[in-house]
Amino acid sequence: MTIIVNLDKMKVTEFKYRFTGPLPKANGTEFRISKLKPPFGRVLQDAVIFQPDGPGFKIDGHVVRWANWEVHISFGVRAGLVISLASIFDMDMNKYRRVLYKGHLSEIIVPYMDPSEDWYYKSYLDCGEFGCGQSAVSLEPYTDCPAGAAFIDGVFAGQYGTPTKIPNVMCVFEKYAGDIMWRHTEATIPGLKITEVRPGVSLVARMVTTVGNYDYIVDYEFKPSGSIKIRVGLTGVPEVNPVEYIHISENKEEDIHGTIVADNTIGVNHDHFVTFRLDLDIDGTNNSFVRTKLVTKRTPKSVKTPRKSYWTTRPKTAKTEADARVKLGIIAEELVVVNPNRKTKHGNEVGYRLLPGSTSGPLLAQDDYPQIRAAFTNYNVWITRYNMSEVWASGLYADRSRGDDTLAVWSQRNRKIENKDIVMWYTVGFHHVPCQEDFPTMPTLSGGFELRPTNFFERNPVLKTKPINFTTARNCTTEKE
Amino acid sequence: MTIIVNLDKMKVTEFKYRFTGPLPKANGTEFRISKLKPPFGRVLQDAVIFQPDGPGFKIDGHVVRWANWEVHISFGVRAGLVISLASIFDMDMNKYRRVLYKGHLSEIIVPYMDPSEDWYYKSYLDCGEFGCGQSAVSLEPYTDCPAGAAFIDGVFAGQYGTPTKIPNVMCVFEKYAGDIMWRHTEATIPGLKITEVRPGVSLVARMVTTVGNYDYIVDYEFKPSGSIKIRVGLTGVPEVNPVEYIHISENKEEDIHGTIVADNTIGVNHDHFVTFRLDLDIDGTNNSFVRTKLVTKRTPKSVKTPRKSYWTTRPKTAKTEADARVKLGIIAEELVVVNPNRKTKHGNEVGYRLLPGSTSGPLLAQDDYPQIRAAFTNYNVWITRYNMSEVWASGLYADRSRGDDTLAVWSQRNRKIENKDIVMWYTVGFHHVPCQEDFPTMPTLSGGFELRPTNFFERNPVLKTKPINFTTARNCTTEKE
Q1: I need a labelling partner for B72 at 20 to 30 A (CA). Which of A169, A199, A465, B35 fits?
Q2: Nearest to A423 by CA among A280, A240, A268, A270
Q3: Which residues carry out catalysis (chains A, B) (predicted)?
Q4: In-domain check, residue B18
């Protein structure tokens, strides 16, 4: 059923039945634990996590200090969680050094792949049209964020201009995932076996934004080694379309635009493109973007070895915005934001490298309206010159936008970006062909990327990190939460 | 200095000085905590992790049971940790269903990118030449594996045929990383706000193999949702080359084949290609490999909407091995191993999807000797017909091999693979341009992939999972470990 309302006239102007068929049954769609009947799955063990001296981070207003990191955390109606002034302590220099001036979600676009009248317009700009901050939810202790997490409220101007608070909308926690920060066993010295291992712990700042049916878990993870990992987890409920049948063999359509996930229910094909804006300030404001191609070379005849080839590095600094549009996965290259004004003792430019994740890009035609509005997804990575009005990849006014104010348009100005205040834009892309496991709620599907110090420090910055003292608790009294 | 020994004659046949220069100083290369002087880095908090009822897994001989998983874990001299008979309990069917008959490391090749006489031959086949099991190390509690881990010894026939044991060479632990298994906040029902969150816990089986300078952390992670994540972490000490200078501006060579990482020390460019052999048995022995292209379509004129395009799925079952050679990152496609003999209630073929990680492939020339031996890296993914003699991607006898018995050669037989017992080969690739942070020990760099159920279950298999009861411990007495 399609109802079109003319909001200027406040009148229903069209009313159409497309399809009359059986309503998908509620049976199997319940996901509340209190309403579900046994048997339940093989239940996970209860757990206690306990830090004798409390958590390792300190929150002072909006500033979080943990290990060698100092990070400002705030909240906005459109972006949700905002990281600012992220700096890492350098033991050699005995001072904090800036990495990220500001980083946050800029847009999420979710185009569905059914071109019919009921679905064609579903290409939501989640942050621009709904507000990824406004749609963020209060986080639940122990489940949304683990034991030991600290929760922070979000306050913003609501839809009617009044102050609006979402309690516990962000959390900060230490992640003890059993990772190894670094290790080495040296077994080649006769009579001596050295094993040194440092366990990996990191600090995570998290928000969850639920834009209608989907829940996005957005994590900013800081590692003592200097890495920042940004990750988005997709969960929630997939969007579905009713059909008359229960078994795919009964289908008479040429294309069902998805997968039958339950009785009378098609999970519709779609994409998620999650775009982050990262105003990096690598050890200062003025930075450059270096694309270092790895190029195969034939071994010169002068080198007398049986080796016929090797690869070498061909660094090229992007002069303008056009030089810095990257489609991932096509060529082997290292992508590094450097500060050309700062060099290490050995003469390397200090920098942070981008370690990309998925290489998914848009598949819609370039002349299609949703893709004109989503032109910011045409490349996985863009670098722009800093401009205070360029914050939202889909444009300042995304609702009913026509694509004339997107990141892709700004990049057309082709500004100089060498040794300037520059901004990196990274899109985490997912093509989603639904499957039955996604129904009625979808196990989290994750993607993301890493920013990793590359000649930023003179040496491994966590070389002189003491192993954590782990203790075993005995004779505890425990209280259920 | 190069010394060539003729092992048949047991004689030194060549002795060459290439280069006389300053020996890199030991200063800055120490990584033992006991030898390092203050100040140390901002130290991470001590931690206690405590499960009142002990860990959630049970080990019975070589079989580990945890949540809905049952997995056999063993050890081999060449592969190290071997996963067998991994099966997941299906609540709807009230039985365990097979996913992975056998999965393990098959080979790691590490070609270095300096073609000179001293380096050209460095293209190590770590598992075939050294033994990734033989080189595996005893794991240290609390640092290599977190609190609550169980350790398992590895026993194999040693170099002289005698039984050899590496104590605690594998560990199994529950990973409480603060992940969310699934969640949804339903805010669209007037007067009712529903939030349901299930925290994510997984089971990890780990080994670390130290082949000379590099330490590889190999993790097999099982999630209650049915996903298997396989991940390799690279750490240890990079291989270095001495040079006369301290600052890059002093360099007179055209190509230094790496990065100056410390005084008189070049970290040499190289790759790591880590190949896993996965004998999948998705709900039975006979499986097929389906490549589903996502294809952009123009909206037909008959569809009266402003939408001009969408993507749809074009599944194609690989008939032979040639159809199943995949270079990742070039086209949008879903890669699914299905059991064509088993369908869901709705008629979907039960399957497991591959969610790839990095798309790095080899850059050496195809006629170069190391690449002929490493031809198994020419594609990121291969599917072969099961053959009991095809286990080691580099060939059964890798040492001094000439590339006539590799995965690439077997695949040339182009056997039929539709509805057969098939084996998936996946290579996790890294190009490594060293940076100063990698010296003297390298913070872990991770890569991997996920195998995820796709129409294997009738619905979200963890829908009916109770939230974990987290408890807060009080009044504990603690003992330092």
Answers
A1: A199
A2: A280
A3: 126 (proton acceptor), 214 (schiff-base intermediate with substrate)
A4: no
How many residue pairs bridge chain A and chain B with CB atoms within 8 Å of each other? 588
Res. A481: pLDDT tops 50: no
Domain that residue A186 falls in: 2-33+67-454
| pLDDT over threshold 50, residue A232 | yes
Contacts of A345 in chain B (CB under 8 A): 246-247
Q: If you ran DSSP here, which 8-state letter would residue B378 be given?
A: S
- Decide the pairing of beta strands B194-211 and B477-480: unpaired
Low-confidence residues of chain B, pLDDT below 50? 481
Identify the three-state secondary structure at position B135: coil
Instruction: Report which of residues A16 and A223 the model is more confident about.
Output: A223
User: Kind and range of the H or E element at B410?
Assistant: helix B407-412
Structural domain includes residue A220: yes
Contacts of B224 in chain A (CB under 8 A): 41-42, 44
Average pLDDT, chain A: 93
pLDDT at A190: 87
Dihedrals phi, psi of B370, to nearest 5 degrees: -60, -35
Domain containing A344 — which CATH number?
2.70.98.20
Q: Is A249 a domain residue?
A: yes
Structural domain contains residue B318: no
Nearest residue to B396 (alpha-carbon basis) of B125, B139, B135, B5: B125
What distance in Å separates residue A195's CA from the closest CA in chain B? 8
In this prediction, residue B481 carries a pLDDT of 45
pLDDT tens column, A91-110: 999 999 999 999 999 999 99
Mean pLDDT of A5-28: 87
The pLDDT, as a whole number, for residue B477 is 63
Task: Confirm whether the ipTM is greater than 0.90.
Answer: yes
- Identity of residue A204: V
Domain count, chain B: 1
